[in-house]
Amino acid sequence: MSIATGTFWLGRYDTVKTRFSSLKKIRWGRYSVISIPSLWLALFFFIPFLVVFKISLAESAIAVPPYTDMFAWNVEDAIIDVKIKLGNYLYLFEDSFYLDAYLSSVKIAAVSTFFTLLIGFPMAYFIASKTGTMRTLLLTLVILPFWTSFLLRVYAWMGFLKKNGIVNEFLQTIGLIDQPIQMLQTDFAVYIGIVYTYLPFMILPLYTTLEKLDGSLIEASKDLGAGPIRTFFLITLPMSMPGILAGCLLVFIPAVGEFVIPALLGASDTLMIGRVLWDEFFQNRDWPMASAVATMMLLILVVPIMFLRNGKKEGAE
Amino acid sequence: MTQETTMPLWKQDGAKPFIQIKNVTKKFGEFTAVDNVSLDIYENELFCLLGGSGSGKSTLLRILAGFEELTSGQVLIDGVDMANIEPWNRPINMMFQSYALFPHMTVAKNIAFGLKRDNVPKKEIAERVAEMLTMMQIEAFADRKPDQLSGGQRQRVALARSLIKRPKLLLLDEPLGALDKKLREETQFELVNIQDKLGVTFVVVTHDQEEAMTLATRIGVMGNGIITQVDEPRDVYEYPSSRFVAEFVGSINLFEGRIYEDEVEHVKIKSKEAGCNFFVNHGVSCSPNQKVTVAIRPEKMKVTRRKPEQEYNCLHGQIIDIAYMGNLSIFRVKLKSDVIVRVTLPNLVRENRNPLTWDDFVYLAWDDDSSVVLTS
Asked: Residue ranges of the ABC transmembrane type-1 domain (chain A) (predicted)?
């Protein structure tokens, strides 16, 4: 009896041990696989961010580099003086200029993202509904603009939108307007620029989800009495949510910090945080303030995304 | 019960068909998937379309559901031409081969989907869904998502969803294809019971002849876009109308031969392959001396070591293969002409004292009414 129990116990111990070690092996494998991207992120994202964050806590100074040190050594008394200035962050809230810039950026990015989705979804749907060469051709057409310099394409839009540009000339020729419309240097031009530039980032993730969408689900919905419009809202749209989410993030995040498009197409009063950052850095040479603006922008972007991710995980469970 | 009520609708003269498929053709570019098919299906039938892949059976089913436009022809359901009726307006539901359950909805919501679209009052939806869940024995899974279910459970949900609107006609695309053998057998009988209980007309597409045999009131055998034979399961098996049907449904031995005596009540056929003459006790409409095929099912033959006393329908050969299947054994017998004949024998006793074995010479014989003469 006791012997039997003993072997039983041994046997169980054995399996526990082997299981444990195999688990460890797998984990090591996993770590080594993700170590390269982790290292990359640490080197080129996290460390630079820490540097920016450190600068944001300094004071602007006429020096090289133009800010004060955080640590000062007092060798005689062996004291480290740590100097942290929170004033930059407080100033962000005191001066409504920064808050307005943040809000305006988020608004412009949100509206642009919405229109990118509105235009991108039908395009992605159309491409996904095609097969073979046609599909490849259409996808290539979506990616093709990337082969031209981004700046060049924005300049091309200036040619389209300026007072004596192609759009105005055309509208005047067909007699729709008498006077050229001011399009360049307006928020409208900024929207057009952002929507145009970021459209592929919306279409590609949407295409991947729509392409995987099981056609028999659509047919089942129709078979059960839902017409094409209902089927779209009840089946196609909810099923493509991952693509919509990915596309929106891919457009929204860079659009918030966009600098070039508002600078070239926008008016002088088009307020965007990217521009504020630029001005703080190059015009005012106030590195700590610029760093505080950048840090804050990251927080504004990262926090909602983390919420989104958590929401998605809960939804999946 | 009178004779009239027991006689199935398709045998009654002047019975009104529920589904009328008239000269339907469907082409995809150059490829003809369904080729001039005409078929009547009656109310309360469990009709099976049986065919291999690419036979056009699934296309025909999708035509009924309204997912494929006709190249030519006409489909009437309950006397109504379906030409301009969209899938969502047809009194038909379909159970998809992949089940096509909506992955973002719970089981209960999946089942309720069809009723919600018809603006059925909420209370009635809840009642009918509950009733359906009970009938399919899936109450426990009502709040689960489809990816948390096993194959058999998903199959039940799909069936429940397609039945909840009480359609006049239910189309089933390989309904048991994704289930394992044991579950398939159980579900087969269950399907028949449900069909009987609800009085819905079923049209089932399948490539599995066993499935078709157990389910169907009638089978339509399809090949290359054409329906080659429509008959009750027994007749499809025992009286195949062509070589194609004979070979597709079950296994069969075929011998080429020539008719040398053609009477009203019997024919005699000479066959070099078989090394004997055949006597078939049914007349064949054909020209004298015509080449024909004689077909005999493996289980219809008697196997003996001693030569049986019959002049016709007797083959002689050597056993080259034996497969023990449990309930029966399959023998492959090689004739002098090198033709291999397949014979099955039931294993009636547990221990056979003098079993047939490899290299034994045996005689294979059958009765006059066991074989079929095929002219096409």
From this structure: 102-308
